[in-house]
TrEMBL record:
<feature type="signal peptide">
    <location>
        <begin position="1"/>
        <end position="21"/>
    </location>
</feature>
<dbReference type="GO" id="GO:0016717">
    <property type="term" value="F:oxidoreductase activity, acting on paired donors, with oxidation of a pair of donors resulting in the reduction of molecular oxygen to two molecules of water"/>
</dbReference>
<dbReference type="InterPro" id="IPR005804">
    <property type="entry name" value="FA_desaturase_dom"/>
</dbReference>
<comment type="pathway">
    <text>Lipid metabolism.</text>
</comment>
<dbReference type="GO" id="GO:0006629">
    <property type="term" value="P:lipid metabolic process"/>
</dbReference>
<keyword id="KW-0349">Heme</keyword>
<keyword id="KW-0472">Membrane</keyword>
<comment type="similarity">
    <text>Belongs to the fatty acid desaturase type 1 family.</text>
</comment>
<dbReference type="Pfam" id="PF00487">
    <property type="entry name" value="FA_desaturase"/>
</dbReference>
<keyword id="KW-0560">Oxidoreductase</keyword>
<keyword id="KW-0812">Transmembrane</keyword>
<protein>
    <recommendedName>
        <fullName>Fatty acid desaturase domain-containing protein</fullName>
    </recommendedName>
</protein>
<dbReference type="GO" id="GO:0046872">
    <property type="term" value="F:metal ion binding"/>
</dbReference>
<keyword id="KW-1133">Transmembrane helix</keyword>
<keyword id="KW-0732">Signal</keyword>
<keyword id="KW-0443">Lipid metabolism</keyword>
<keyword id="KW-0408">Iron</keyword>
């Protein structure tokens, strides 16, 4: 019962900011030089999709700070930056056998979940199989792929868990290392480069309150908005996240080739499979000039769809007499696990970016500067930690 209560609480935390909108304070900082930081202070309003961020708009947002936000004027940014840099160097020197042991433990827990799920997937659909398969997918993404693609294990002898080459280069490598709905190359661009280096800015592709402004502004009863959001929980990775990460990869490709984006295309606007297949706005129609639906389905979705839902349970068909029944059970277990892991990852990740005390930013700062470090702290949420088991089911994202 306590677990169900905690899950319900997490879902409400994840849903409320999206439906009601954010009421957050905003710090806008611009790093002019290595030693000078100019910070503009403003109260943020919910961002309208495609709204420009101009100096005039920023000036209109300037309002007196609340008492709990006065720290932004008195914080020693340069001192904080020096402390963070020193801590990073200290932790880098401490990298070693303990980190390898920790990684091996997480891999073993993930593998246990995978083995339990795969061995039992031919059984009548049941919670143990579904949770095991769901945890296999969740852990592979949030702890192994996420930490590896960020280079978290690059300084230790972690074998294949190195950012250079992990799940990259071929379908076989992707299936072996990390196969999910998102194309790893696309996720590296969208998440590692754009989201983390532009956290809660206009150009952050994961700015939740902007991406779901359509729902907040919809002329629907509040209950209906919750129903719509609940319907997104179990399908969000393939319906929303996969096409958005691929969009950023294709934009990056065009930029590298020196090509201009289509005139009517809005690069900050979030997309879905629905807007890709049935475009409604001018920007969505222009999207077809950037990413082709067939290319998206073949390159991005089909490897996971085929390997997880067709090839993985296929050997069950070889079992005489009961093979088709076992195969049908496996398909149902895999589909239900997919729905569960989407909900699990949604309530874990979105709550990390939700909360009325989080900050949004009107402009950008240079990476690895004091203002950049401050934004990483005040732009995301932490949760109560405790032990490895609790952290494991948070994907180690609760810090």
């Amino acid at each position: 019962m306590r677990l169900l209560t905690a899950l319900a609480h997490s879902i409400l935390i994840a849903a409320a900011p999206v439906v009601w909108g954010f009421s957050t304070l905003s710090i806008s900082g611009r790093q002019n030089s290595p030693t000078t930081t100019i910070c503009r202070l403003a109260v943020a309003v919910p961002l309208h999709e495609g709204a420009p961020f101009t100096n005039e708009e920023s000036k209109k947002r300037h309002k007196p700070l609340l008492n709990e936000d006065l720290w932004v004027r008195t914080l020693d940014y340069e001192g904080f930056g020096r402390e963070v840099s020193a801590l990073g160097k200290e932790l880098a020197l401490q990298s070693g056998d303990d980190d390898v042991a920790h990684l091996e433990k997480i891999v073993s827990w993930r593998n246990v979940a995978a083995i339990v799920g795969i061995v039992s997937m031919g059984m009548t659909p049941n919670p143990i199989t579904i949770i095991a398969l769901s945890t296999w997918t969740f852990a592979s993404w949030t702890m192994l792929a996420h930490h590896t693609c960020h280079g978290g294990y690059n300084r230790i002898d972690a074998g294949e868990f190195h950012s250079r080459g992990f799940a990259l280069g071929s379908v076989g490598q992707r299936v072996r290392d990390w196969c999910d709905w998102m194309l790893p190359e696309a996720w590296n661009i969208e998440h590692n480069r754009l989201h983390h280096y532009r956290l809660n800015e206009k150009n952050d592709p994961d700015l939740v309150q902007r991406n779901l402004a359509f729902l907040r502004q919809a002329q629907l009863p509040m209950l209906a908005k919750y129903v719509v959001l609940a319907a997104l929980f179990p399908v969000w990775k393939w319906y929303y996240y996969a096409p958005n990460t691929f969009k950023e990869l294709e934009i990056n490709r065009l930029n590298r080739e020196g090509k201009s984006l289509p005139l009517l295309f809005e690069p900050e606007a979030a997309i879905t499979i629905g807007s890709l297949l049935c475009p409604q706005t001018a920007s969505e129609h222009a999207l077809r000039d950037i990413m082709k639906p067939m290319d998206f389905f073949v390159r991005v979705l089909s490897p996971f769809l085929a390997s997880r839902f067709i090839i993985l349970p296929a050997p069950l068909l070889l079992i005489p007499t009961v093979g088709p029944t076992l195969y049908a059970h496996a398909i149902v277990n895999l589909i239900l696990a997919e729905l569960v892991t989407n909900v699990h990852s949604f309530v874990t990740i979105v709550t990390n970016h939700a909360g009325k005390d989080l900050y949004t930013f009107d402009d950008a700062v240079k990476p690895k500067t004091p203002s950049f470090y401050v934004r990483q702290v005040v732009g995301s949420a932490n949760f109560v930690t405790g032990n490895d088991l609790n952290d494991f089911f948070h994907g180690w994202l609760n810090y």
